[in-house]
Amino acid sequence: MLPRGSRSMVEMSSKGWESCLHNEIPITRDQKIEVIRFDDQCVALKAPLGANHNDKGTGFAGSLFSVAVLAGWSQVMRYLAQFSLAGQAVVSRSEVRFVRPATGDFTARVEPLDGGELAEFQRTLTAKGRARLRLTIRVSCDAEEVLVLEGSYAAVTT
Questions:
Q1: What is the rounded average pLDDT of the residues 70-90?
Q2: How far apart are CA 146 and CA 158, in angstroms?
Q3: Residue partners of 127: CB distance under 8 A and separation at least 6
Q4: Looking at the domain covering 7-157, what would its CATH class be?
Q5: pTM of model > 0.70
Q6: What pLDDT does residue 4 have?
Q7: Residue 38: which of 110, 134, 87 has the closest Cα?
Q8: Is the dihedral angle over the CA atoms 57, 59, 61, 63 positive or is it negative?
Q9: Distance from C-alpha of 134 to C-alpha of 8, rounded to nearest angstrom
Q10: What pLDDT was estimated at residue 12?
Q11: SS3 track for the chain
């Protein structure tokens, strides 16, 4: 079970979070998703083209999208733990722009928030038990941007 909102999650290594994802969200194992960064500054996930290609030999759009959404969700779960709040997170809305084909392994990185956005998210979540957060996730392949996802994530404390 994912350590939702626990302090131990904040202290969890990239490999520890990867193990949780693979156990609780089986498609992440099938996609061979690797957690390459999971800390206060950034969440980044990597997926190999070999397990995520389409009939053209480039990155399958659904795989690119799912890795981006999962990176954002992982970041929100990390924020919940950082605030010592138990809760759930979901992507509630997203807008995606496919920039170019992914011709190799690809990496999704969540852009950092400024302190004000994060503080407002925490304040609202603590006061109301629910809050929304807008995240930008960029997926790249060979240092070239291939997808940009603007996602609205909802968090609810339990």
A1: 95
A2: 36
A3: none
A4: alpha beta
A5: yes
A6: 53
A7: 110
A8: positive
A9: 25
A10: 84
A11: CCCCCCHHHHCCCHHHHHHHHHHHCHHHHHCCCEEEEECCCCEEEEECHHHCECCCCCECHHHHHHHHHHHHHHHHHHHHHHCCCCEEEEEEEEEEEECCCCCCCEEEEECCCCHHHHHHHHHHHHHHCEEEEEEEEEEEECCEEEEEEEEEEEEEEC
State both tokens at 43.
């969440």
CA atoms within 13 A on the CB side of 77: 23
How big is the chain, counted in residues?
158
Ordered by start, the domain boundaries in the chain are: 7-157
The whole-angstrom separation of Cα 71 and Cα 44 is 6
The token duo for 113 is 């928030």
pLDDT of residue 5: 52
Instruction: Quote the distance between the C-alpha of residue 9 and its chain's center.
Output: 15
Q: What value does the mean pLDDT of the chain take?
A: 93
Cross-strand partners of 144 = 141
R_g of the chain, CA atoms, integer Å: 15
For CA atoms 71, 75, 80, 81, the dihedral sign is positive
Side chain identity, residue 22: H
Question: Residue 155 is which amino acid?
Answer: A
